[in-house]
Amino acid sequence: MRAFPPPPLLSYAAQLNFNNTSTRKRHQGIIEMHKRDMIRRLISGEAVERCGFWMGNPHADMWPIMHEHFGTASELELQKKVGDDLVWIRPGKFENAYQHPDGLPMFSTAGTCEAHASRGPLADAETVSDVERYPWPNPDYLNIEPCLEALRNTGDVYRMSGYWTDFYHKIMDIVGMEEYLVKMYTHPEVIHAITNRACEFFLEANERFFQAAGNLIDAFFFGNDFGTQQGLICGPVQFDEFILPWFEKFTEQGHRHGHQVVLHSCGSVHEVIDRLIDAGVDCLHPLQAKAANMDAETLARDFKGRIAFMGGIDTQDLLVNGTPDQVREEVSRVQELLGPSLIISPSHEALLPDIPPENVAAMAEAAQVDVSTSKADGRA
After folding, report:
1. What does the pLDDT read at residue 109?
2. Beta partners for residue 264, in sequence order
């Protein structure tokens, strides 16, 4: 059977499936796209028929509540029922994802750190040579096949993947949160050495994974919570010195493999969003709505048309205490402010069991409203 070329509106991802697609619909002049292609175009700032939707990644205690409400039995069934346009499948979450011969975890704290506020095994490191006493992870022990198999069996949804690459958190565990922040001033060479060792591992881990995954994934999704309710955890000068250079490297790596880059950070990160845009980040998640300057109005005023957004539906108050009608109204308001380059999603991806499932249903319903008369946001 002769393969006809696809219309130019479709991106490369959709072209791969064009000749296997039996039907095509036109709605107000825009081709109804596969979800994968729609989200890629949305993040790129091109015209799409509606905003995207991702219900997030419910907490383990939330899944049974959701299944009971929606009448589902599996995560995949629930994701389909609420109309998720995206999935997050990362190699580090699978059992035996890291197979150290002595059974060590990927980043070991050897019982010294139970929380970010605790002192870690490198809390007393004074020299660069001290850094080498830590059992740094080895990419040769990675097991990526379970993740690849899951991706091969994923349907027509946009796939976010890659190692979570949360080096900021890992260093807080290895050093201790207070010691980490203080040593940025007192022992910057030690913090640089620790950061380099952690990030070099993630860079190599992602390189191996991206080479194996190829076009099974659409976006490199990684995260470091560098914001608080009011501002950054470390100052902007320290952010520029210790954090941003590696963000730039990871973003370049994702783009080099043909993936869009979605960056996660809870808290107020308004102060450095310009830097993230300059670094090449394509989409920012999760837009913690109640954090300082992270409300939809401020983000639209300062950054709309320069970066795509994912999140923005408040999980601190609205989804917990609001009514379904209030949730629908807020979704419509956020869409109006931040769309069309917007994926409606909770402002914290781990939906907690204090959120009524009726509000999740209302968010999903309101999110999937046609916006096909919307124009591209100017970045295309």
Report:
1. 80
2. 223, 285
273: nearest Cα among 234, 244, 314? 244
Please, are residues 279 and 247 in contact by the beta-carbon 8 Å criterion?
yes
Tens digits of per-residue pLDDT, 126-163?
Answer: 999 999 999 999 999 999 999 999 999 999 999 999 99
Copy the structure tokens of residue 124.
Answer: 């007393």
* Look-up of token digits 């001033």: 185
Q: How many percent of the chain have pLDDT more than 70?
A: 87
Bridge partner list, 30: 27
- Dump the DSSP string for 114-149: SSTTS--TTTT--SHHHHTTS----GGGB--HHHHH
SS3 for 259?
A: coil
Kindly report the CA angle at 331 between 361 and 69, in degrees rounded to 5?
Answer: 10
Contact 186, 233 (CB under 8 A): no
**Which token pair is 18?**
């064009």
pTM for the model stands at 0.89
**What tokens were used for 323?**
């009514």
Using DSSP's 3-state secondary structure scheme, residue 341 falls into coil
Please name the helix (run of DSSP H) or strand (run of DSSP E) that holds residue 86, with its range, or none.
strand 86-88
| Inter-CA distances, 245 with 124, 164, 192, 201, 280, Å | 25, 17, 11, 15, 12
User: Residues 54, 85: contact at Cβ < 8 Å?
Assistant: yes
Helices (H), 214-323: 236-238, 244-256, 273-279, 296-303, 318-321
How large is the average pLDDT for residues 267-292? 97
CA distances in angstroms from 154 to 59, 67, 86, 147, listed in the order given? 21, 20, 10, 11
CA distance 76 to 62: 15
**What's the pLDDT at 83?**
96
